[in-house]
Specification:
homodimer; mainly alpha; 2 domains
Chain lengths: 205, 205
Amino acid sequence: MPKLVDHEKQKQLLAEATWRIIRRHGMEQASVRHIAEEAGISVGSLRHYFATQSELFAYSMQLVSERVDARISSLSLSGPPLEDMKKVLCQLLPMDEDTRSEMEVWIAFTTKALADSSLKAQGDQVFEKMRLGINSIIKALVELDLAVPDLDVDLETARLHSLIDGLATHAVINPDSMTPDKLEELVTHHLKSLCKSKKTQKEQP
Amino acid sequence: MPKLVDHEKQKQLLAEATWRIIRRHGMEQASVRHIAEEAGISVGSLRHYFATQSELFAYSMQLVSERVDARISSLSLSGPPLEDMKKVLCQLLPMDEDTRSEMEVWIAFTTKALADSSLKAQGDQVFEKMRLGINSIIKALVELDLAVPDLDVDLETARLHSLIDGLATHAVINPDSMTPDKLEELVTHHLKSLCKSKKTQKEQP
């Protein structure tokens, strides 16, 4: 079905044009006219793919989350558990130019969603998916018997989820001090802080 | 100097009108015309206080940070150290309607600053002030001999700073699950996780 493929490809190109405008000029400049211009098509042609600006924004927001999913799915996870968990969590952080661009756009959409109900549902859905992913990492620490005794799974899920979003924001605002190496170090340190010390682990029967 | 006082008061009223527009309609609608209308004055009168939209935004951003400072200064801190530290950190989080409004506006300004260099300096200054405040809390844990052995002050400053900003964002995006009680619980839990266990503390000479 080449036509359907082209249709989807064109929607992605328009979403990417939306991202570029938002990064370069901010959300205030992301009008349908500017985005069509950036993508090199007419406003009329853009309307063929997205009837409203809200539809275009919801799709562009969704695409960020799909790219994160695709990256996580393509990871080769066969190392020690903490190493694999760190790899997954780092996919949610700006580790290079592409992911930095995604996060900047994500922050802009999340902020817009605060005063724009048409984007809120999309944002909430991705928020919940991310929460569940982080929850499964915390549960795995318990199931693999790595976690400190009496770890509160819900509390630690909320803490790690907030920490990851805070780190992503700091890396976007302040890339000179929150470098990729620093992000990795902080994620590893946090995961280790949730685990029994090696000594305690060896004492287990 | 009643005239100077009035001048400052009027600037605050305009900043508050800016906050209301941003919260209700988003940054895209925060034009000088809309803000003047919301404040009940003419665009010409507004220009008397702020020559440009950038000046108005920089002042409005600054005012959020001054309100936080004022709240922290007015705290009565005489309890156990961890309790006092929690009280200070909670001033950086949306614990009621007023502070929730401040944080929403703060997030909108921070996002705008990503693509607007005129706001970036203001944002960086507040970011650094907040980092220093959090750094002094971490250093106090060490100086009061409450901290776990070998605590890395810079790493823990970066972790707590990111956590606080992540919690503030989650409480704004998702107030039903990230309630004030939950925020307090998470801050207390994090501070305790940086401390020696009571048993170890008693073992000290």
